[in-house]
Amino acid sequence: MGKFKHIEDFFKKYKWKYILGIFVLLFVDGLQLITPKILGYVTDALSAHTLSMKEIFFYAFLIVLIAVFIAIFRYLWRMLIIGSSRQLEFWLRNKLFSHLEKLSLNYFYHNKTGDLMAHATNDINAVRMAFGMGVVMMTDAIFLTASTIIIMMVSIDIKFTLIALIPFPFVALIVTFFGKLIQKRFKRVQETFSSLTDKAQESFSGIRVIKSFVQEESEINNFAKANEINLQANMNLVKVWGAMSPLVIFLPTLSFVITLYYGGTLVIDKVISLGQLVSFISYLELLTWPMMAIGHVINVLQRGIASMTRINEILDTEPEIHDDDNTLDIDNFEESIEFRNLSFTYPGAKVPALSDINIKLEKGKTLAVIGKTGSGKSTLANLLLRLYNVEEGSILLGGYDINKIPIDLLRRKIGYVPQDNFLFSCSIRDNIAFADENMPFEKIEEAAKITSVHDDIIGFPNKFDTQLGERGVTLSGGQKQRVSIARAIAKNPGIMIFDDCLSAVDTKTEEKMLSNLKEVTKDRTSIIIAHRISTVKHADEIIVLDEGRIIERGTHDELVALGGYYSSIYHKQLLEEKIAGQE
Ligand SMILES: Nc1ncnc2c1ncn2[C@@H]1O[C@H](COP(=O)(O)OP(=O)(O)OP(=O)(O)O)[C@@H](O)[C@H]1O
User: Fold this and answer.
1) Residue 246 falls within a domain, yes or no?
2) Which among 281, 316, 351 is the end of a domain?
3) Distance of alpha carbon 556 from its chain centroid, rounded?
């Protein structure tokens, strides 16, 4: 039962619903077995002319009554069994999502979003099917098949039953075989459809590039190709469905032919009565569904187990970064930062992203990091946020080893402005108040004023309630950066990390923001990662990174005087500014 360990808790809660559901289902199966008996009795009584009109009405009423009971109890088992399987789907989806949310960043670099979405849809659906219709089909396949055949043998004729049922096992075999094939082709349809939607989505998000490169025609052709592949996959599916359905209907017809021929002779020879023949035909009809169920149930259960195994793999993955026995029992630390002999190589990478980094940053001071792209600047931020574990050397915060600081405490104390300025598809207000949904509006407004985005927001018709994202307003790169900075500031953190977050604003806005930010960073320990000298020149210490190593360090004046890398980009940027000023 190891495969179901993650859903044990669910079954503890829902087992009585399942047990009751199966009882109701068995009751319905039992009721279904009565009607053929009545039909047989009525036929015999009619041929013997022993039935009064009143009795005919009574039996007709009885058949209707049984049908009504079957309908009511069918509704009941559907609610109990299929309803529980829907609850399982809901429960498992929540469990999977909350587990994924807790996994480390590295997990998401190594697993494609599309695959994770497939687990959340296809695999969960397959598990639901196994514990919904799978349970129903298994119960019917066993009970309805066995009880119907036994009744046919006992109350009609053993040999007749055995002969008439010869085509039936083939129904089960065909459904098993075609079911597997259908599953395979259905999967292919899903895959081709998902690449079709991916293609469309990419074309729409990349519409600027497509238009500027005049590539509409080629995009249309590519889409048509993907659409053609999807059509082929659908046609292949239609073919197997098309072959299976007539076969499944044809085989029971053979049984009816045998029944008519062999049963007819038995009636003529008076071995069985006409009524028994009528009952027999009704029982045969009843058997078609459980025979198909035998075929389906194997596939449904196999798929359910395979999907459960894939879901288990995710649920068994432990977050790489978590609090453990070494975690200190502290609820605060002083905002000083020290990188001590720190080296770091990303999992799976060959060259280190950082080597031998030594920096001491006192509380309230500002460190600026500058360097070529890929020199390791963002890696410093990733390690400070403990998105990766520090393994070589150490990072000390307030004197505590970062690996021993409770992760929640650490991240709560850091205001981080990421390089990509990711914003959520909700209102600007909710984006800025992301750290605390009960944040007072004054704080949200103040953060927007500090980052000079307040006037832009007020200019939108819905102001702070302006919706961002696909169906909302699209902010400019600079506006996005400023909202993202406001989000970090509104959190009121002790440490601030700005990862290249002023690159998309013009120098004038930058100047204004820097003077505002000076207020914000005055009492906070800050790390500013940037490419522009104008962003970093007021920092208490500036380091220049190259291939993960500190190659220059000092204040702006010291570094300009040094005449190295920093000084060369300073002069280059000065020249650029001059040229821009003359234009
Ligand atoms: N998740 C990762 N897995 C493996 N290697 C990575 C990962 N992230 C970054 N790297 C590599 O680590 C090195 C440092 O990257 P980092 O993002 O710190 O550079 P950066 O200085 O911030 O660059 P930029 O200015 O372009 O943002 C680069 O060689 C990069 O390719």
Assistant:
1) no
2) 316
3) 48
378 lines ligand 1 (CB under 6 A): yes
How many structural domains compose the chain?
A: 3
Q: Which of 344, 379, 417, 545 to mutate to test the pocket of ligand 1 (most atoms within 8 A of CB)?
A: 379
DSSP annotation of 473 reads: B
Which numbered atom of ligand 1 lies nearest the CA of 376?
18
What is the pairing mode between strands 495-499 and 414-417? parallel
CATH number at residue 293: 1.20.1560.10
Our answer on whether the CB atom of 349 is closer than 6 Å to any ligand 1 atom is yes
Pocket test for ligand 1, best of 107, 350, 372, 375 (most atoms within 8 A of CB): 375
- Residues of 65-98 as b/e, b for ≥16 C-beta within 10 angstroms? eeeeebeebeebbeebbbbbbebbbebbeebbee
For ligand 1, atom 14, the nearest C-alpha belongs to: 376
Ligand 1 within 6 A of CB of 276: no
* β-bridge mates for residue 337, sequence order: 361, 397
The residues near 386 (Cβ < 8 Å, ≥ 6 apart) are 321, 402, 403, 405, 407, 410, 411
Q: What is the mean pLDDT of each run of 10 residues along the chain (583 residues)?
A: 81 92 94 93 89 89 95 95 95 92 84 75 88 92 92 91 89 84 83 83 84 88 93 91 83 88 92 92 89 81 86 88 85 89 89 91 90 89 90 90 90 87 87 88 89 86 82 75 89 88 70 75 87 84 91 89 87 78 61
Mark whether 396 and 306 lie in a shared domain.
no
Residue that is last in its domain, among 316, 349, 372 = 316
Instruction: Tell me: do 405 and 436 sit in the same domain.
Output: no
Exposed e or buried b per residue across 154-183, where buried means at least 16 C-beta atoms within 10 angstroms of its C-beta: ebbbeebbeebbebbebbbebbbebbbbbb
Are 488 and 501 found together in one domain?
no
Atom of ligand 1 lying closest to residue 354 CA? 14
Establish if 241 belongs to a structural domain.
Answer: no
Q: Are 366 and 397 contained in the same domain? A: yes
> Are 44 and 96 found together in one domain?
yes
Same domain, 408 and 281: no
Cβ contacts of 90 within 8 Å, gap of 6 or more: none
* CATH classification at residue 384: 3.40.50.300
- Sequence letter at residue 300: V
Name, in order, each residue with C-beta under 8 angstroms of 324's C-beta and a sequence gap of 6 or more: none
ipTM above 0.85, yes or no: yes
Check whether residue 477 and residue 359 sit in a common domain: no
Is there an atom of ligand 1 within 6 Å of 52 CB? no
Name all contacts of 254-257 with Cβ < 8 Å and 24+ positions apart: 254/167, 255/164, 255/165, 255/166, 255/167, 255/168, 255/284, 256/281, 256/284
